[in-house]
Amino acid sequence: MEGILDEHIQVIVSNKNPIRVLDLSSTGFKIEQLTPSVSNLKHIRYLNLSSNHKIEVLPERITSFYNLQTLILSDCYSLRALPKDMGSLKHLRHLDLCFCGQLEVLPESISDLCSLQTLNVECCGRHIKLPKDMKKLINLRHLKTMLNEMPSGIGHLTNLQTLSELTVGKDTTEASVVELERLNLLKGKLRIRNLRNGPDFYSEACPAFRSLIELTLDGMQKLEQWEWVAPPPPVSLKGSSRFPCLEKLSIKNCPKLITTPTVFPHFISNSLVRLEIRDCPEVSFLPDMRHLRSLERLCIRGCQGLKSSLDGLRCLNSLEEIEIGWFSEELNIFPAVSINKGEEEEEEEEEEEEEEEGTHDFISLKSLTIDGGTKNKCLPEYLQYLTTLQYLKIENVDELVALPEWLGNLSSLRNLEVYNCDKLTYLPSKEAMQRLTALSSLIITRCPLLKERCNKETGEEWCKISHIANVFYGSYPVDLGN
Are residues 77 and 130 in the same domain? Predict the structure, then answer.
């Protein structure tokens, strides 16, 4: 079969008619078949060699294809080297090297590709580096990287529209966040790694990303205190154009972070739809979120030291999904109703809060995931009032023995999932489960005691769930019969 394929490719490249487009992806052909002596390849503009796992070294003869505009080498995972004279491809506009896991070095001559508009080196070798003179690629519009280091000069690429990741360096030979000030055309997604200090969004030195949709701040390893001070109006309104399109903000991997700013800037609050805070185990208080009026999805994970509640989220009418996990045992994440107060006092406080905020409790919340951490023994009682919930996932509540009776109050619940609750043994009563008239899916994963009691017909809990249309133990559906 391989011999027939080789002959077929040889016929193609030996054809007398000029070839401008050649797609040899996933063919397993021999790279030696592309020779510069074949006259019909001199006019080639598009060459796709992706997913050819036999290519280890791209030969120098490739640089003779002077009219080449697009070269795709993605998923050539055996590729170890490119021609040193890659810079001679003066018309090359698009170079795709993603998922070339063995590729550790890019030739310095790549910085001579004056027409290059797209460079993709995502998921290449762990130690791959960009050429030192990257700043010469003034026509570059899209740079996709996952690098441990990035050379300085990125700020000279003023036509750049896509920069998937910026790794901030430790010295002047590497990239700094200040260089982003010139990149006014950036849009889409940007991930900034290894920042030493949390950015002050009100500072004039903070870059203005007017077309950016997603921003991730990852790996502020030494940051302990993150503060910004909002200047009084009208000075503070100058920043209103900094992030007019930002929809998602992620803050991750800040192991020493203790304090955060008290509130989010108003120019982020206006457009933010998704907020993610992960792996900040020392942080005790989060910024006030009551002004994030457009927020639809919130994820807080790995913040074991968190002491502030999520009570302020009650007024967010757009909030549809919350994912929260590994909170401290003392934290009451939904303290809107206190069981220690009298009913009259509760009603008065609720009326005052609703009058102040002009809204009701979580009126749009549809999805909730709670990762209880290893020490928690029960679920927050306030969950019983979230009657708009359609999806509820409970995971890693190690001391939880029984799901509460009030679970039957969640009249809109369609999907219930419990995961990795070793001691979980009992469901609510049969009457409570039957009140969940919308429930159509129950998934039980890594809950050995509950799974045993929910065995079809023989389990003591089976009568409580036999009416549910779809019951899964892990990934395996239970045959409910007729």
Answer: yes
Peptide bond into 131 cis (omega under 30): no
Greater confidence (168 vs 481) lies with 168
Q: Is residue 401 part of a domain?
A: yes
86 or 228, which is more confident = 86
Is 419 in contact with 348 (CB distance < 8 Å)? no
Predicted local distance difference test score (pLDDT) of residue 148 = 72
Q: What pLDDT score does 274 carry?
A: 95
Q: What is the mean pLDDT of residues 38-59?
A: 84
Closest Cα partner for 180 from 148, 234, 217? 217
Would 357 be classed as within a structural domain? no
How many distinct structural domains can be found in the chain?
A: 3
Give pLDDT tens digits for 445-466.
999 999 999 988 789 999 999 9
Residue 415 lies in a domain: yes
Domain that holds residue 421: 367-481
User: CB neighbours of 262 closer than 8 A, spacing ≥ 6?
Assistant: 287, 288
Label the pairing between strands 470-473 and 476-477.
antiparallel
Q: Does 432 map to a domain?
A: yes
Helix (H) or strand (E) holding 301: strand 297-301
Query: Nearest to residue 87, comparing CAs of 128, 46, 133, 45?
Result: 133
